[in-house]
């Protein structure tokens, strides 16, 4: 047969050569008899060897019958087919490349063959084909990619091993740029990474590692946007290796691509945020996720807040699919293996902001981000670190994009208030920072961004005090403070926040008992303490639940008298030198009347000793309960604290402070023989010259100078208000007692 073929070649008798190949194919290789098929395969191989370099002209006729035998049920026949194809390819070398896809398809099937001899033969053929591809510069990568994309989803271990080995070979060929087609195969690679075989997983790791090295070397040619959603999907994988690898890729993508990744932020956050609460068993994933989170957060810039307005002011040609192209990146569906590339060069779709250098043209999809953050806050099963990260994101967005964020404030407000009941102090602190920023941001004063419910609108009679230092700032100085929650500028959400906070304390008494003081103290650091006390006092003045009002006033009073955060406010109230301080005192006093003892302590703080004495005289008309005596006991303890050092020193000046001594003696007379009685009694025994306690006209004259600054305060009206409030409390107690007695009678009946 070889001699006959060589003669035909020498004679250039093409028709006879084709006739010989046809007979070998049809009558032998494709025969029903197994021995004939074996002979046909041997004959085709011999024919190819005889043709030599001319075999390339007849490759289609030579290869097709051999590949058909790859599917033969007889393993011996499959082996002969493998051997025949090896000889054909060895002779033809580079000429087989136009038929590479059918050869690859056939080899991928033999790679999973159950017969070891067939598998061994296919490996020899595979190595030969790889050598040919490596040597050649005519490989058709574009035509091969669809087949590779299809075969990469095979579940067979050997087929997967075969695929990965080819990807590694193609990656190593300098003339073949597989990176351009990485979006086509990346999803399949991550699926192979989850294979049960350690060897295959290792091979896949190596392949992905090589791709990542190439990406770092040539980031400008990488299609980041097309692969973003693929990474988002695999960052949520149950397999630790897949998740860690995908997260590492995501970290590099965010750092290399920058703002190109912003349209995919909602998907990235969905994948990254839960990882932040992983324990030490998944420490590596947690650390990489944290870097991803921080890097993504840095991509949000103040210009993102102005993008919509700037877009509207520009006259751009119509783009029929511009909205669709911007909304697609955020759809992270697991069924999508390929995503459309974000066109970062289209001037009609995206707006470019220029600072010192040209920025990447992208649009921040804030709605999608807020939706993800909101979902995570509502999910009670998420860990503490994830909740903290969510709140940091919200705070960051309110700082960088306040105008856009205030569109979402009404929907976020309820969950932010509920988060105050969280078990973690760190979560509550971050939550308070967000709420404080909402309450103080100048963006909240923009028309249309106010509270949605009219009932929460701040009454016109309440004036919140803004310190002069804030209003006197220059425009440049104010700009720097606008992002700070400590800026004492209050917006329409401030009063709404105070109302809802008090409602929450009213409905959750445990929260008030365990975290109430902590929350209010932190708010006094984040916001203006005077505004907080002024607004809360005004709200409590109209509180219908008198028992809660009394408890809340007691809590606020304790904070006012003992917290280091309120040192400045105490000093302001101590002297009542300014109209603002006197206004604040009157506002606090009216609410403090819900609790008689706290009212006296406020008078002590503001050095209104005569009025304190007048109040104590009214205590005889009140119902003296155990709770009442307990509060008097606590007040005596407070008098011995550093806060009231100035008061104790004024006891030395008996001549000018007779009402102070009288007020303290009044408290002493209220107390039973207890440790507090002994404490106050010993203190009063230290007062010098007790016979000078008698109030004379001269004494009144000498004492009057201390209150000249507060002469415009109508203490008579304040005293009447105190009596009115206490009468309400008395009626409420009688009603509660009556209801309790009725209930007891029903139980007896």
TrEMBL record:
Transmembrane segments: none
GO biological process: phosphatidylinositol biosynthetic process
An annotated GO cellular component: endosome membrane
UniProt cross-references to Pfam families, sorted A to Z: Vac14_Fab1_bd (PF12755), Vac14_Fig4_bd (PF11916)
Domain Vacuolar protein 14 C-terminal Fig4-binding: from-to ranges: 509-687
Main location group: membrane
Compartments where found: Endosome membrane; Microsome membrane
Domain of life: Eukaryota
Chain intervals for the UniProt region annotation (Disordered): 309-341
The keyword Endoplasmic reticulum appears for this protein: yes
Keywords: Endoplasmic reticulum, Endosome, Membrane, Microsome, Repeat
Described purpose of this protein according to its UniProt entry: Scaffold protein component of the PI(3,5)P2 regulatory complex which regulates both the synthesis and turnover of phosphatidylinositol 3,5-bisphosphate (PtdIns(3,5)P2). Pentamerizes into a star-shaped structure and nucleates the assembly of the complex. The pentamer binds a single copy each of PIKFYVE and FIG4 and coordinates both PIKfyve kinase activity and FIG4 phosphatase activity, being required to maintain normal levels of phosphatidylinositol 3-phosphate (PtdIns(3)P) and phosphatidylinositol 5-phosphate (PtdIns(5)P).
Subunit structure, interactors included: Forms pentamers. Component of the PI(3,5)P2 regulatory complex/PAS complex, at least composed of PIKFYVE, FIG4 and VAC14. VAC14 nucleates the assembly of the complex and serves as a scaffold by pentamerizing into a star-shaped structure, which can bind a single copy each of PIKFYVE and FIG4 and coordinates their activities. Interacts with NOS1.
Similarity comment: family membership: Belongs to the VAC14 family.
Protein name, as recorded: Protein VAC14 homolog
Native organism: Ardeotis kori
């Amino acid at each position: 047969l070889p001699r006959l073929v060589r003669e035909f070649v020498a004679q250039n008798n093409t028709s006879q050569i084709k006739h010989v190949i046809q007979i070998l194919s049809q009558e032998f290789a494709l025969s029903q008899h197994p021995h004939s098929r074996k002979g046909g395969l041997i004959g085709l191989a011999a024919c190819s060897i005889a043709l030599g370099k001319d075999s390339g002209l007849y490759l289609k006729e030579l290869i097709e019958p051999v590949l058909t035998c790859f599917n033969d049920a007889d393993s011996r026949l499959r082996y002969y087919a493998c051997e025949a194809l090896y000889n054909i390819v060895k002779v033809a070398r580079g000429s087989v490349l136009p038929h590479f896809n059918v050869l690859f398809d056939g080899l991928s099937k033999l790679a999973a063959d159950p017969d070891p001899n067939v598998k061994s033969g296919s490996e020899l053929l595979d190595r030969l084909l790889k050598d040919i591809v490596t040597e050649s510069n005519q490989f058709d990568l574009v035509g091969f990619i669809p087949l590779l994309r299809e075969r990469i989803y095979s579940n067979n271990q050997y087929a997967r091993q075969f695929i990965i080995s080819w990807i590694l070979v193609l990656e190593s060929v300098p003339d073949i740029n597989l990176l351009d087609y990485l979006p086509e195969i990346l999803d399949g690679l991550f699926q192979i990474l989850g294979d049960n075989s350690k060897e295959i997983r290792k091979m896949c790791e190596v392949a992905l590692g090589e791709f990542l090295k190439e990406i770092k070397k040539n980031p400008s040619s990488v299609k980041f946007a097309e692969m973003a959603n693929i990474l988002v999907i695999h960052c949520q994988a149950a397999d630790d290796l897949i998740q860690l690898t995908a997260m590492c890729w995501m970290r590099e993508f965010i750092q290399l691509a920058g703002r190109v990744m912003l349209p995919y932020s909602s998907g990235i956050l969905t994948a990254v945020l839960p990882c932040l609460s992983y324990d030490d068993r998944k420490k590596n994933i947690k650390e990489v996720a944290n870097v991803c989170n921080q890097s993504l957060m840095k991509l949000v810039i103040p210009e993102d807040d102005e993008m919509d307005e700037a877009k509207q002011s520009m006259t751009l040609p119509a783009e029929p699919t511009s909205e669709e192209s911007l909304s697609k990146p955020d759809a992270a569906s697991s069924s999508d293996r390929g995503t459309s590339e974000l066109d970062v060069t289209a001037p009609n779709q995206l707006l470019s902001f220029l600072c010192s250098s040209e920025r990447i043209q992208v649009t921040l999809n804030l709605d999608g981000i807020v939706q993800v953050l909101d979902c995570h806050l509502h999910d009670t099963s998420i860990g503490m670190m994830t909740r903290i990260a969510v709140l940091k994101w919200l705070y960051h967005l309110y700082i960088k994009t306040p105008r856009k964020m205030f569109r979402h404030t009404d929907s976020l407000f309820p969950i932010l208030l509920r988060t105050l009941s969280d078990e973690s102090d760190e979560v509550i602190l971050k939550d308070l920072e967000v709420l404080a920023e909402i309450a103080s941001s100048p963006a909240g004063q923009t028309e249309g961004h106010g509270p949605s419910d009219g009932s929460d609108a701040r009454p016109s009679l309440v004036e919140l005090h803004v310190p002069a230092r804030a209003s006197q700032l220059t425009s440049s100085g104010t700009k720097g403070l606008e992002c700070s929650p400590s800026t004492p500028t209050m917006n329409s959400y401030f009063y709404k926040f105070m109302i809802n906070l008090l409602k929450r304390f009213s409905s959750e008494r445990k929260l008030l008992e365990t975290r109430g003081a902590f929350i209010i103290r932190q708010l006094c650091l984040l916001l203006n303490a005077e505004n907080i006390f002024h607004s809360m006092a005004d709200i409590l003045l109209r509180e219908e639940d008198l028992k809660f009002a009394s408890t809340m006033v007691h809590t606020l009073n304790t904070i006012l008298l003992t917290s280091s955060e309120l040192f400045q406010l105490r000093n302001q109230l101590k002297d009542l030198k300014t109209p603002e301080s006197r206004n604040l005192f009157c506002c606090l006093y009216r609410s403090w009347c819900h609790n008689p003892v706290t009212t006296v302590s406020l008078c002590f703080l503001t050095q209104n000793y005569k009025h304190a004495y007048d109040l104590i005289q009214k205590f005889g008309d009140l119902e003296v309960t155990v709770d009442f005596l307990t509060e008097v006991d606590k007040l005596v303890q407070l008098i011995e604290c550093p806060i009231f050092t100035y008061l104790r020193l004024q006891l030395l000046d008996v001549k000018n402070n007779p009402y102070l001594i009288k007020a303290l003696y009044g408290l002493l007379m209220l107390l039973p023989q207890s440790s507090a009685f002994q404490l106050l009694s010993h203190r009063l025994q230290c007062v010098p010259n007790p016979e000078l306690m008698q109030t004379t006209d001269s004494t009144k004259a000498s004492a009057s100078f201390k209150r000249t600054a507060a002469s415009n305060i109508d203490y008579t009206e304040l005293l009447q208000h105190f009596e009115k409030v206490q009468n309400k409390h008395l009626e409420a107690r009688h009603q509660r007692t009556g209801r309790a007695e009725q209930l007891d009678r029903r139980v007896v009946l």
